[in-house]
Design brief:
NTF2-like_dom_sf, Nuclear Transport Factor 2, Chain: A, FrzH/put_lumazine-bd, 129 residues, single chain, Lumazine-binding protein
């Protein structure tokens, strides 16, 4: 595997991640999360640690930003790759009236990159009102 391949694969994974969140599509997110992944809210007033199956249940109950007609805003802040099977991505996304910062730990397992841990923080979005 040359150094460009993991980066391209992770960029594709992140695009699917953003799209899956925007659509609240748990089936789509299953393609980017590891089955043993953890979902962690780092806010003391909203602290949660969920398994991926528990997180899927949350998503399945959510009315998606896409269905609400919300605009989509996201950006990749950084990707760090520690060859051959460990990477980290810091991303930001605005949806559901919140500005999210996600720290994603990824592993290369069974021939694919997958999110093993999603640890995030959010603030109420500043909409310039």
């Amino acid at each position: 595997m040359n150094s460009a391949q993991p980066h391209k694969a992770i960029l594709a994974l992140l695009e699917t991640y953003f799209e899956g969140l925007y659509r609240a599509d748990s089936a789509m997110l299953t393609t980017v999360f590891h089955p043993d992944a953890r979902y962690v809210s780092a806010l003391p007033e909203d602290y949660r640690v969920l398994s991926f199956p528990e997180y899927r249940q949350v998503l399945d109950q959510r009315v998606s930003p896409a269905r609400k007609g919300e605009s989509r805003s996201e950006r990749i802040i950084s990707i760090e790759i520690a060859e051959p099977n460990l990477a980290f991505a810091r991303v930001e996304m605005t949806m559901l009236g919140r500005d999210y910062t996600d720290f994603l730990t990824l592993i290369f397992d069974q021939g694919r990159w997958a999110i093993m841990a999603k640890i995030f923080h959010y603030e109420i979005a500043n909409r310039g009102d």
